[in-house]
Design brief:
InterPro entries: DUF2187. The chain is mainly beta. It has one domain. The chain is built from 1 helix and 5 strands, in the order βββαββ.
Length: 63
């Protein structure tokens, strides 16, 4: 299992996408405002996703 890093874009739960803001031992905290249709979905700005429940779709840009 590949663990996301801060800044990665992940996909989870029926196509939701977000930017990883913090990596915890068993989960990541994700900013959902990355999605263009975020306001239409009426979701909270951030959510917690277990490492088992996402795929990395874009790596963070390296400095």
């Amino acid at each position: 299992m590949k663990i996301a890093e801060v800044g990665n874009i992940i996909e989870f739960k029926n196509g939701l996408q977000g930017i990883v803001e913090k990596v915890n031992e068993n989960s990541v905290i994700v900013d959902l405002t990355y999605m263009k249709n975020y306001r239409d979905l009426e979701l909270e700005e951030k959510t917690v996703v277990n490492h088992k429940n996402y795929t990395i779709i874009k790596k963070a840009l390296e400095a």
